Automatic annotation (TrEMBL), chain A:
GO-annotated cellular components: clathrin adaptor complex; clathrin-coated vesicle membrane
Protein name per UniProt: MHD domain-containing protein
Naturally occurring in which organism (per UniProt): Volvox africanus
Superkingdom, taxonomy of origin: Eukaryota
Localization terms from the record: Cytoplasmic vesicle, Clathrin-coated vesicle membrane
PROSITE patterns in the cross-refs: CLAT_ADAPTOR_M_1, CLAT_ADAPTOR_M_2, MHD
Coiled coil: none
Domain MHD positions: 167-423
Automatic annotation (TrEMBL), chain B:
Listed name of the protein: Beta-adaptin-like protein
Main location: membrane
InterPro entries: AP_beta, AP_complex_bsu_1_2_4, ARM-like, ARM-type_fold, B-adaptin_app_sub_C, Clathrin/coatomer_adapt-like_N, Clathrin_app_Ig-like_sf, Clathrin_b-adaptin_app_Ig-like
UniProt keywords, alphabetically: Membrane, Protein transport, Transport
GO terms of biological process kind: intracellular protein transport; vesicle-mediated transport
GO-annotated cellular components: clathrin adaptor complex; endomembrane system
Origin species: Volvox africanus
Amino acid sequence: MAISAIFFLDIKGRIIIFRDYRGDVSPKYAEKFMSKINEMEEAGKLSPVIYDDGVTYLYLQVSNLYLLAVTRTNVNACSTLVFLHRVVDVFRHYFQELEEESLRDNFVIVYELLDEVMDFGYPQFTEAKILAEYIKTDAYKMEATVKPPMAVTNAVSWRMEGIRHKKNEVFLDVVESVNLLVSSTGQVVLSEVVGVLKMRAYLSGMPECKLGLNDKVLFESQGRTSKQKAVELEDIKFHQCVRLARFENDRTISFIPPDGAFDLMTYRISQNIKPLIMVECSVEKPSRSRTEYLVKARSQFKERSQANTVEIMLPLPADAISPTMKCTQGSAAYVPEKSALVWTIKSFPGGKEYSLRCHFGLPSVEAEDEGKGKMPPIKVKFEIPFFTVSGVQVRYLKVIEKSGYQALPWVRYITTSGNYEIRMV
Amino acid sequence: MSDGKYFSTTKRGEIHELKEELRSLDRPKKKDAVKKVIAAMTVGKDVSMLFPDVVNCMQTDDLELKKLVYLYLINYAKTQPDLAIMAVNTFVKDSQDPNPLIRALAVRTMGCIRVDKITEYLCDPLQRCLKDDDPYVRKTAAICVAKLYDINPELVEDRGFLDMLREMLSDANPMVVANALAALQEIQELAGSGGKDLLQMTSQTLNKLLAALNECTEWGQVFILDSLAAYDTRDPRDAEKIAERVLPRLQHVNSAVVLSAVKVILRCMDVVALGPGGGEETIKGWSKKMAPPLVTLLASEPEVQYVALRNINLIVQRRPAILANEVKVFFCKYNDPLYVKMEKLEIMIRLASDKNIDQVLLELKEYAQEVDVDFVRKSVRAIGRCAVALEKATERCINVLLELIQTKVSYVVQEAIIVIKDIFRRYPNQYESIIATLCDNLDSLDEPEAKSSMIWIIGEYAERIDNADELLEAFLETFPEETAMVQLQLLTATVKLFLKKPTESAQKMISAVLSCATNETDNPDLRDRAYIYWRLLSTDPEAAKDVVLAEKPVIADDSSTLDPSLLEQLVSRYLATVAAVYHRPPETFVSRQRMAVTRAEELGSRKFEEDDGATPGTMVSDNNAAAAAGAAAAAVGDLLDLSDASPVPVPPAAAVGAAAATRGLDDLLGGLDLGGPTIRSSIPHIHPAAAAADPFAALANSSPAPISLGISPAALSQLPVLLANPGGVSVQGRLVRQGGQAVYQLALRNDTLAPVDGLMIQTNRNSFGLSPASQVLAVSAPGGVIPPGGLAPVRVPLLVDPSKVTPPPLNTGLQVALRTNQVGVLYFNDTVPLSALTEETGTMEAADFLAAWKTLPPEASTRLPLAVPSAEVAKQRLAAANLFVLAHRQVPATSQDAIYATCRITAGGVGQVLLELKFVAGAGGVDVSVKAERQDVAQLVFDGLPAVLLGAA
């Protein structure tokens, strides 16, 4: 069933703007929303789907706003929340920043968009680029005969017809981010690679594209022997332009791309990976009021590769006094607002080890508080260009358009840190 | 250029100024004025008085201006229904505009204006737009049909819009297909599950939907997948076909598409499992494909993750194999929001097994040392729950708990002690060696639950703790100040100690506790328990031992485990929906209201629990509307618009009398005939002219012969009172089955000072279509007149009138209106007993019974707490109520009696009902399982059976 209304509330819960789709949940309910979530939060039961007095509230918080959908029916909760995120994307596309001021400054457009993305509580259309074709921000640009683009209802709802580019080019970035969790004893608890193929397509007409990867399943089905290293991609998700049924049939990735930048596909690999950069931190307490960190950072990838802008964030106690540090490479600084020590290394070649020493004091009177929990984990950020952990390779990217132009594909590889955490002792 | 400035005008005389500007001939000025009006509307100011002026701006070529005026109309048309008609012409014109954007806009907006007068004008434009050349207009028109149905369902049916929607399912455009499907689904739900099957899902439509699935937008895909999950197939080949086509959707980037696809596949699994060989291989294959996408859902935004986790929790319970090896992905990240961490913990506990428990424990221990107190507590509890669930791992769990106790963090210690108590209960006499360690931490206990857990441990193991008496004594010092929970536990523990170690100090303690608990407390639970112990100890200490030290049943971890039938429903029908997030069936929270009714919402706020018994899509809150109307005594027609709502408020007789007196019987009964779910607004529906021409003209001529009730006057006064009205006309009576039909045995008592005549009766629409054969009451009194103080018996045969059947769910409520010339109209509510419905010829062959038992949908079961003397008596009583007993056997091993019976109810389309009754020996109770074609029949039987079995019928 469907959503009754969508509200934009400010951080105090006051209504900024709303669109009522069904008339069965009055704005009064939105006014009660804030006190309800405060009550839930106090009880430690806050969640993004809450119930009160016959009404279900589904909401997100974006910068200084709440985006709230209400219903009295058994609506599809997953679809509703994804939809709200899409609405945020659409608004960001229009106003760059989604916040109280931008909503007020553009309230006419906001109403128009809310009328178009949803009808009678059913999500309709959330492709910002296509919406921008017939709902324009500048009223004066509006021509007399604006028509809904074919794309709105077409099978190809993400691309306009008749696009022209002087130079036909495709850029493909293979970005892999490594999520890693290492226990305080140095064991890898969790490791996975999330890959994204980011495409920027500047192609004319309606180009048919075909992408070839060194996909293990495909190679096996074609009976190819492993001349080339093949990769087992665990869970692949495609942009809606990719023909899923075709992929299911013969693992061919074929599509008509949207114009401009988009994520063509994502995949996940949860094989065990050796931490690319390993950080060990030993803590010594020579006296009650002195603590010393000895930190070692080791790069565990091939020597010809190199990690850039490595940032290691070491947590310090909130009440640490005057930390001093010395490191063999890069620079380190104390960031009190994050209660952390940030160690930056501009370039970190493979197979190297650097170390850092840090002393700090603690107040001699120990705070007697409840929150004497463990320290947060060490976080590491880095980028390794021209390298993928998984070994994924783009074998070809064919572009066929009926005008017969030649398109140039450009491919880049990069590995970055995702949620990369090492627990403190 | 920023529109923000429009919000800043707040000076006096603003409205007047706006009026001027709206009338201006200068177009930019006019548009600015409309923007100001909308800005005022946005901040919640009432600008409805500008209605005529704003509507005058509607005829314009400026699309932006038009949209703003339309927006204004949607908001204020309700408040100015008469003026809204002014807009109709422009709407009709716009719906024929050459620009499809404007055509669609007109149809979309018209549907949102919920003014009765406008809806009639909506039909022609809508009909045109449903056939429009442009798919954008068609997809908008499809949704508009659902809007119209919400306002005026008859109109939709009369104009054939439903057929047009069905045709649209074969539209060439996938978006049109998806929206037509969404509209049909909505209408189906509004009409109730027993309504006609609107979708009429044939294999042909199925193929079209599956084809459209590949082509339409992500939201369209969600509509289609959700309707596929509702599609009821029992053919494993069908299911396999659907699943094969849906599997590629798991690769979609939109989490909603993925989760809805998972739902369809899980449902197909259930069907395939019925097929040859249980479809084992197929299910295994699908499960393997489903795991990675489910894991990937955890990489989505935290809100979506939360919904995914709540759903995965259900999937893990229903099909544990799918994610059995994935426990690691549910490990919590440091920065996960608390609500995500809590859900991950639940799933970790469910997936914990002997294989992975070491890893899980390491994690839980880690979490137990984090900062957030709620999360830490839950993590400690999780360790305890793992111990209770996994016998082989208990020792390891206990070791982790002991390590945590060493941290001396107060809330960690307390939580650990609470779970250790549970572990002791689960595995008695195995781990008591750790008691000493626990006793070292008594000082840090300040929470009632932890305290009472520790006290329980001391009492339970008093004989092994050398200084148990000292420990308890320490607690006893603060006895009067403790919470009830701790006091009760202290009382019991002291008694245990005394029974196990009857030392002098124990004796002193016990007398102190008992006197304190009996004299100085006002908590009845505590006092009563103390008295019982006192009495036991003073009369028979051995008996006290038997009672207090009795062996306890073993516990299991069933927290947050769902009932299997609810689980099945949530997984294969409601996955991804709010119901699956709450882990509750939809009828407990859905409170859908009809649009016209919403204005009455101030009159009664509704609570979660009150909604029980409502079904999705039924208009539960009609109750409110009815109450409102009743209070105002506005119109009798409204009172009777209650249709299928169960708890019917009996209107104050005086108010009703007054209202009815002014309107007369014809109005009332006209209203009655019209009343029911087909009427969808609270606007009075009384059409005196139509009602006057109603069946009554004909009835007036008929002169029914008086029929006696066939029961003695003494028995007459034994009839249940249906309406007590001291000083007025009272009604007693009962519905029974006589001569193959339901008959109302009524007795009317006239306590007024004057004779009463002109008696007529009518029933409101009900689940069984019961309606009197004759509306004129054949009172067995001279001249049909009841003298003052007289008691007149009446026999009213009831016929089944299919046109009076309300849509499901079944409801045994029956509303009756009784009319007299002297005291106006009386109302009463009755319930239809099961025995009045079951038919005399409703038996079947035992072999057919067996066959039917296998083919019917799964049974619904409940335990009725009834004391039936014996199975034989029950059989007699069942037979007397036309419930035909086909077999009676003893359940092996349990010596329970099982009876198999059947009955048939044609009224209301209930059909053949199959029953299994098991008499629970000793406890006094009957387990009843019911199978029938319709799912709502079970409740009818559960409600009706007690009266039958107790011989009350």
